[in-house]
# Entry
Amino acid sequence: MLARLRALLISIPWILGWTALMGLLSFLASFFDRTGVTQHRLACIWARWLLRGAGVRVHARGLEHIDPRGSYVFAANHASYLDTPAILANIPVEFRFLAKRELFKIPAIGTHLDRAGHIPVERDDPRASVRTLAEAARIIRERRVSVLIFPEGGRSASGKLQEFRDGAAYIAIKAGVPLVPVAIRGTHRLLPPGSLTIRAGAVIVCIGQPIRMQDFTVKDRAVLTRRVQEAVAGLLEHSITEAQQTR
# Structure
């Protein structure tokens, strides 16, 4: 009851107001910077203050595994809408999201995603999906940015890890950049799917060892997908004790 009251009086008004303000700034910035760099920086600021206003503390682990100047494909588990700000606020690499096209139709959010250079995915059209993956690989090579994808294809209702699709592996192989497993623990407890009540608490973001692409071809994407899923599962398992200690 107290968590719901706090959400109604504090968290939800703060999130809506802050998102509207930063969305407007991002939209205005897009007229002066079409590369998406400024929009990404604004998104990181939005994420940090959104989490702070909601009472969510994020503990990032494994940052030493990545070079802020490098290009990567990040593959993360997905159990809550809080996953996106948790990653934005804590991974110091400029990246673009692969997001389902439905999100691009949401007012303000869709405008930001489009003008910031994020990439819509057609989940129900296999041919269009392959074109999207190839386009993501091209963007990584040419713009030297990173891409983040949730390989489960959507949020896990139970919070448990679901089967990974092979899109992240395909992009990493085609772009020739490392594939990085990312595990997020705690967001499902604080904001499960179907709920608008954000509970204050701790989240852990674990970044695993990058998987290099030298030994992989597109034909190996299923093998690589299993490997990155196992890596994410291992990171989640390893973070259980730490998550309990930081609640």
